[in-house]
Design brief:
The protein has one domain. Helix 3 crosses helix 11. The chain is an all-alpha fold and 397 residues long. The chain is built from 17 helices and no strands. The radius of gyration is 21 Å and the shape is globular.
Length: 397
């Protein structure tokens, strides 16, 4: 066992016990809540609540994958200290295959087209090559396999670089990132289409993958800011400095605008075209109190964080950024609800035990796995070729 690993485990043991027990507590409460919710609220409500939670946390894992790829593609020095925990977030993707099992088992409750017969829906007949049970299950397995391969390779070369700082490790990581950015774009789009958009198989949207991507990176940046703050405060990553927080917040601000642009573009193009196979998705979400939820997303997902982070100094103020991070998580959860829940609650959102239980269970499990990874490996790259720039900047910050 390396001295770095020993140090990290010692730091983990030194952490306050209540905080270390939070993931286990969340898992226990979430599991009990899921069982009670499944029995009391029915399989359909549970399946949709679970899908919301799954797509929420899949966003963060995919966002971590994106952050690793962008680091290697652009070779930025500021992202070196946060690269390792971004790798850990990305390496949660293979574990998401386990949490996908309830979705696979309850798929007929989530995707009406799985129960349709040939000729029953013209829209389904046109897309039959894509939306059929065999393709759906095989494609789902392939997606997790691809994510497992790329995330494992990127972190494996990163950990090997910690040993001797060999240049070939950096070269291989860049090569995997170069191909990985195309793999990322394709697999994220396929996941969004197969697992969320296909609930309404008759809907056409060429921007849905980009829409899910924008929200995924947005919530991941908020999460990354929170992780960086926690690891800085506990001394886990002492090389995190002002520059890291400022750059993460700048990206968060940028993706706030990007998400708004993509969301508005999709709405504007489809509504302006006035094609029934496109506009019905929005018509359904203007019924009952869903119309108010739409306004909450417009104001809360864009306007509030945009105006809050507009000042440069706000990006470094914890009094501002901590509430912003909590707000980001809330808005992304509402966004996932807005995509999934109108199928079973046509008149507006309905609070269910399964909603919170699924979030607690999946979130608790992923937090426990993430902390295990943090404690097992050095918390930041030890011999990255640009580490000297990080240390030089820290000395002057």
């Amino acid at each position: 066992m390396s001295s770095d690993t020993t140090t990290m485990e010692a730091q983990a043991e030194a952490q306050p016990t209540p905080w270390r027990q939070l993931p286990a507590l969340a898992i226990a409460l979430g599991l009990v809540g899921c069982i009670v919710g499944f029995v009391a609220e029915g399989s359909k409500q549970f399946a949709h609540s679970y899908l919301v939670a799954f797509m929420f946390f899949l966003s963060i894992c995919l966002g971590g994958f994106f952050m690793v790829l962008i680091h290697h593609l652009f070779d930025a020095w500021w992202s070196v200290p946060i690269r390792r925990y971004s790798e850990h977030l990305a390496c949660l993707l293979p574990w998401m295959s386990i949490f996908f099992l309830p979705i696979g088992l309850l798929a007929p409750e989530l995707y009406p087209w799985m129960s349709m017969k040939p000729g029953e829906s013209h829209a389904l007949d046109v897309k039959a090559v894509l939306f059929n049970s065999s393709t759906w299950y095989v494609s789902s397995a392939v997606l997790f396999g691809i994510w497992a391969l790329w995330t494992h390779k990127l972190r494996a070369w990163s950990l090997e670089q910690d040993e001797d700082g060999a240049a070939h490790c950096t070269i291989y990581m860049r090569r995997w990132a170069c191909s990985g950015i195309f793999v990322f774009a394709f697999t994220l789009t396929a996941a969004a289409i197969f697992w969320m958009k296909s609930q309404e198989h008759q809907w056409f949207s060429t921007m849905y993958g980009v829409y899910y991507f924008a929200g995924s990176v947005w919530v991941t940046l908020g999460t990354s800011y929170a992780i960086a703050l926690a690891m800085k405060r506990t001394g886990t990553i002492p090389v995190i400095a002002r520059e890291q927080f400022h750059c993460i917040a700048q990206w968060l601000f940028a993706f706030t605008v990007f998400y708004a642009y993509i969301t508005f573009s999709q709405y504007f193009l489809q509504w302006n075209a006035a094609m029934p196979e496109e506009t019905f998705w929005y018509v359904k979400r203007e019924q009952g109190t869903w119309a108010y939820v739409g306004w909450v997303i417009i104001l809360g997902h864009f306007l509030v964080p945009f105006l809050t982070m507009l000042r440069i100094d706000a990006k470094l103020s914890l009094c501002v950024m901590i509430p912003v991070i909590a707000w980001v998580w809330l808005m992304h959860f509402i966004d996932m609800q807005y995509n999934v829940m109108p199928l079973i609650h046509a008149d507006g959102p309905s609070i269910a035990l399964s909603d919170g239980a699924a979030m607690l269970f999946i979130g608790g499990c992923l937090a426990w796995l993430f902390l295990r990874m943090v404690n097992k490996h050095p918390a930041f790259p030890q011999k990255d070729p640009r580490m000297h720039e990080v240390l030089k900047n820290q000395a002057h910050s």
